Amino acid sequence: MIKNTCPQCESELSWKDQKYFCDYCQQAVTKTAFCPDCSEQLEKLQACGSASYFCNYCNELKSKSRVKIVFNKVTD
């Protein structure tokens, strides 16, 4: 299971206003998924309560257990 941790302080992120937020740093954080095969950014597909990832470069679905998840601070 992927841990949702702050990229700066590594504390657990909370979910506020439809985005991730670090209560310790007081900073919004984005979550981005990358293809495990080609490293291109993936498109998240959600339907019927489940999430899948699609790589437009490889033109195929990727297992969420294989994707590379990166958290970044939101810059204004």
Extended strand count: 7
| Overall 3D shape | elongated
What is the helix content?
A: under 10%
Query: What is the topology, as strand order, of the major beta sheet?
Result: 1-2-3-7
Using the 3D structure, state the CATH architecture: Ribbon
- Residue stretches low in confidence (pLDDT < 50, at least 5 long) are none
- Overall pLDDT, averaged? 90
Number of self-contained structural domains: 1
What is the N-to-C order of secondary-structure elements (H for helix, E for strand)?
EEEEEEE
Query: What is the CATH topology assignment?
Result: Rubredoxin-like
Task: Name the beta content range.
Answer: over 45%
The total count of helices amounts to 0
Termini, distance in Å?
A: 30 Å
Instruction: Quickly give the structural class.
Output: mainly beta
Major sheet size, sense and barrel closure: 4 strands, antiparallel
- Class, according to the CATH hierarchy? Mainly Beta
Structure write-up:
The protein is an all-beta fold and 76 residues long. The protein has one domain: YfgJ-like (Rubredoxin-like), CATH 2.10.290. It contains no helices and 7 strands. Strands 1-2-3-7 form a 4-stranded antiparallel β-sheet, with no helix packed on it. The chain has a 3-stranded antiparallel β-sheet with strand order 4-5-6, with no helix packed on it. Strand 2 and strand 3 form a beta hairpin. It is elongated and about 40 Å long. Keywords: Ligase. InterPro entries: DUF1407/YfgJ-like_sf, YfgJ-like. It holds the Pfam family Zn_ribbon_6. One of its GO terms (molecular function) is ligase activity. It comes from Photobacterium iliopiscarium.
